[in-house]
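Might you be able to consider the sequence and fold that I enclose below?
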Amino acid sequence: GFAFKATSIKSVVLPEKLVNVAAEVFKECTKITSVVSKAQKIGDSMFSSDTALVSLTIENAKYIGSNAFYKCPITSDIIIPEGCTFVGELAFRSAATTYVYLPSTLRSTEELPLGESVFKGCTSLKRVVSKSPVITNYMFNECLAIEYADLQNATTIGTYAFGTSSKNSSLAELYLYEGLVNIGEFAFNRAAITTL
């Protein structure tokens, strides 16, 4: 880990043929502002605490590890590509994005459960479009600015998935569909839902 810590790298492009990268390779690289990843795997804590990282493009990832972009102030749209099957816990915690897209290919299994709190505390996030069958526990917890969530294929929505514990959220438009089986406790706690 920390292969490039304290370097002056400002942008990173991960090539499609990149197969194996150790965890934390670009962790705490505080001058990186832009990442374009064509790699199939983004490792655990790979860019964690890169405090200048605002622009992110993910193209071919099938796996995004836990804490991959933890505490990165990403302002660009976060679009997880179709084909991605796993996103780890806290992967985008505290990002500054306003839009998130989750693909239909995300899966949660006993061997590899999808991460919890993936977008927790993304306080600028306004719109979520998800085709994922699973919205995990605390996935969008404390995202107070969310106004719109379209959960197209959701069969399970976890505990406090969009809920907040102390302040009201701005979530007014929520779209749920046939096929929804489970809604966890406090999933939409303190939301301002007017359209369902």
In short: The first strand starts at residue 11 and ends at 14. The radius of gyration is 16 Å. DSSP finds no helices and 14 strands in the chain.
